[in-house]
Amino acid sequence: MIKRNLILILILATCSLGASAATQSTHVHGQGQVGMAIDQNLISMTLESPGADIVGFEHEARTAEEKTAVTEALKQLSNPMFVIQLPESASCKVIQASSEVTSENGDDGHADNEDHNEYESEAHGSFIAEYQLECANIAVIDFITFVYFGHFRNAQSLMVVLIDKNGQHRHEINRDIPILYLKK
Ligand SMILES: [Zn+2]
Question: Residue 31 above 50 pLDDT?
Answer without folding.
Answer: yes
